[in-house]
Amino acid sequence: MSALVVAEFLKFRTTRSWIGFLLAAVALTAIAAAGTVGSARNDQLGTMALSRDIVSSSVFTAFVAFLIGIMSVTTEWRHGTVTRTFLVTPRRGRVLIAKELWIALLATVLAALAIILVLAIAVTWLAVEGSSLGLDGGVAGFVGRIVIASVLWGMLGVGVGAVVQSQTPALVGAIIWILLVEALITALLGLVDLEVVGEYLPGRALSSFDGTVDGGLTMWAAGAVSLAWVVALGFLGYARMSRQDVT
Amino acid sequence: MIEVEGLTKRYGSTLAVDDLSFSVAPGSVTGFLGPNGAGKSTTLRAILGLIRPDTGTTTVLGKAYRNLERPIAQVGALLETFDAHPGRSGRNHLRVLAAAARIPTPRVDELLALVELTDSARRRAKGYSLGMRQRLGLAAALLGDPEVLVLDEPANGLDPQGIRWLRDLLRARARDGGTVLISSHVLAEVAQTVDEVVIIHRGKLIQHAAMAEVEAMAAGSTIVRSPDSDRLAGLLTQAGLDVGLLEGGRLNVAAPSERVGEIAAANGVVLHELTTERATLEEVFLQLTATVESG
Hints:
heterodimer; A: 247 residues; mainly alpha; globular; B: 295 residues; alpha/beta; Rossmann fold; Alpha-Beta Plaits; 6-stranded mixed β-sheet; 4-stranded antiparallel β-sheet; 13 strands
């Protein structure tokens, strides 16, 4: 299995798209961090609440991990590399598991880098303003949530990719789902007083888990629901891939 | 050893492969022939575990492809669709495959040299010509130094020198006890390479024979012209030969020219023309596949 994970890293590194992903992750994270620190009122400086907001501005990398996860699968179909992949590893479930493990590692690294980036920006900015960044156990816990959320988002992406397989529909569909469809479903559920069900949708659950939305499920419940989505999409993807003809 | 047992595959309303059975023995090169759309690629993809048969089984080295311990070290495959990422260099394409199969990187460079791609190895594959793509595919097939080779139209895009190189390589593999199955839609293209041919048409087996037998089918007939053609036709028919009447009173006899000449001489028949008409391999191939079409 470790050989397959290494191969996935090599696949990612040997096309140029990773540069774009990295730049997107850095740019989004830096803008979010600067925005958060820059818009802080004087009475917020040094508070733990501000520190939490600063840390959570690194959550954009989770979205980048989600897109990378989707594309790591769909690009195989788009360019026909899936044929060679399955010739080398005919047990297709192993390919899927290797991709899930790889994206988990990559998402961890991306999230860690993003957190370092936002902290560096915040510490520098606050120092210029004569303030400092407050840190406590709560903030540290928040860091852990961001990392785990990135891993879950990335793995969810692999599952989406395995289920949908064609690149553009998978990417566009996933983005529209997260930005629009979930809100729409929740609103419709609200008409029959069931908006609580909307909290169990994957994007909403993950956002409750990483703390970027308030008032949803509790952290543990949101984490469990998110994990359930990751597993469910992984199985659906496997079910589709395992019996599929590659022509 | 490759074995195909009662393989049937349907795509929607199209029957791509219809109850096909054949086996490929080690120590030989077998040509897998049929016109375009005969079901060759579908059969090869079934052997390689890429498509699921509706019924029937395929095994390589006694196992279903997906149950092989180290697939690419046991079976080398080349399919007609290009399977490298266009944005990845040829060398990195092979490195990815090598990494997944735990094959050391020096083997990658060895193969790039073998297929003469070293100079372009670090360029992105999207700029590769058809021949370079084919050679990269062959390098991928040979990466694990497999005992069995399954190659779909391997001569595609290769120049005459490349075709010759490939022929020598495949012959050497077979000599060393390897099992080689190569598909083609042109019999003449593989005639010098293969020991056996499996001919399919519309998904059905037409012929599984030694190449020598197929060549014998092309041995052909004799065209003979005589001022006394009616009498000659009678004599030849008496001798048990098939005689056809051509325009201008010429006869087409299904026998070697020596035999026809001897019969004419023994009976004092004057001949004005005695020509051997050799069917080309392609004509034999067309004949074989045409029989099914009419039936």
